[in-house]
Amino acid sequence: MGEVTHQQADLLLKLYELRREPRLRQARAWFADNFAANSMQELMALCPPGSDNNAFMRQVLSYWEMCAGMVNRGLIDEEFFFENTGEQFLVFEKFKPVIGEIRAVFKSPHFLAQLEEHCKRLEAWREKRAPGSTAAWREWMKQQAAARAAKAAG
Length: 154
What we know:
The chain has 154 residues and is mainly alpha-helical. Helices cover 77% and strands 0% of the residues. The chain is built from 8 helices and no strands. It has helices at residues 6-19, 22-34, 40-46, 52-72, 78-84, 87-105, 113-129, 133-153. Helix 2 crosses helix 4 (52-72) and helix 4 crosses helix 7. The longest helix has 21 residues, at 52-72. The termini are far apart.
């Protein structure tokens, strides 16, 4: 475990304060409860340009991309960050089905690359500490999506 500086702890607390900002909190809640797209077509239907949903999606993705970039560059001790966060993994997992298509359409191969690399390391760290936990999270996410779909249908 690396030594965490007061500056790193302060930065983590500032990032946490940003998460509590009302608009970002609203965007995070919408993303967690409603974001589900498996193609660019589904993404555009769910989050058309100019819509609140599009703004929410962009706000959540850019927040976690920014955080991941800070950790990836060593501005916050990685293990310290992993011990205190986890939502970024859920965000990336939900967005993963469309990432390749978005990168291709916009000719942006590095779109969300900080978050992707960060989540790979988070998954490895989590599996080392608690083998099977990633599979359990993914199963829970599938169950939550099925429950939301069933509720919406009926």
